[in-house]
Design goal:
Elements: H1 2-26, H2 30-36, E1 54-57, E2 60-63, E3 69-70, E4 73-74, H3 86-108, E5 114-125, H4 133-148, E6 155-161, E7 170-178
Parallel strand pairs: 5-6
Antiparallel strand pairs: 1-2, 2-7, 3-4, 5-7
Helix pairs in contact: 3-4
């Protein structure tokens, strides 16, 4: 029993050390941080209506809203605070921002070309009375800071929506500044 606890404690301490090394710069670029965290971006989603996934003007890239979709179909549906818990909403926000980052990578070639995340707007498909939208959208914000460090800190709006397309729980839109000269 004591030996099992020691092994578990050793694993926890090892994980904490690895997390600390990562936080202190073990992985120095966004692409390296993704890899170190074991995060693989999904394929960029195709537009499902009459729009484009990204528009670039100067050094800014405006990304269309993304939800937790795979092959154009929702991976999770429902209202947060109703059929879905706040944690499920948080996880849906993480899945949504991964789709945004996949669209961004498709537009600029590499996330290492990101100078900073400028603005994030998040909509939460909320049940009546649910008022914790900022905590749901933290799923996206927390992941952006994990991947981009201080360059991932952004201005943000988190609001409730009566309905979202396909009954998805979250939709995320971001504006990103890229390095000058980025193709």
């Amino acid at each position: 029993m004591v030996q099992a606890r020691s092994v578990v404690l050793g694993i926890v301490l090892s994980s904490a050390s690895a997390s600390l090394a990562f936080a202190q710069g073990g992985a120095t670029t966004p692409e390296a941080r993704l890899k170190a965290a074991g995060i693989q971006l999904p394929p960029a989603q195709k537009a499902i209506a009459n729009y484009v996934p990204a528009v670039r003007t100067g050094n800014l890239v405006f990304l269309a809203g993304q939800g937790p979709l795979s092959d154009g179909k929702p991976t999770i549906t429902g209202k947060v605070g109703g059929e879905l818990t706040e944690q499920q909403g948080y996880d849906a926000a993480k899945a949504s921002i991964l789709n945004s980052l996949a669209a961004l990578r498709a537009e600029i070639g590499s996330l290492d070309r990101v100078k900073r995340i400028v603005k994030l707007t998040g909509w939460v498909n909320s049940a009546p009375g649910f008022t914790r939208q900022p905590f749901v959208i933290n799923g996206a914000s927390d992941l952006l800071v994990q991947i981009f460090g201080d360059a991932g800190r952004h201005a943000r709006t988190a609001v409730s929506a009566n309905e979202l397309p396909f009954n998805i729980p979250v939709e995320i839109e971001i504006v990103v500044e890229v390095m000058p000269g980025t193709p």
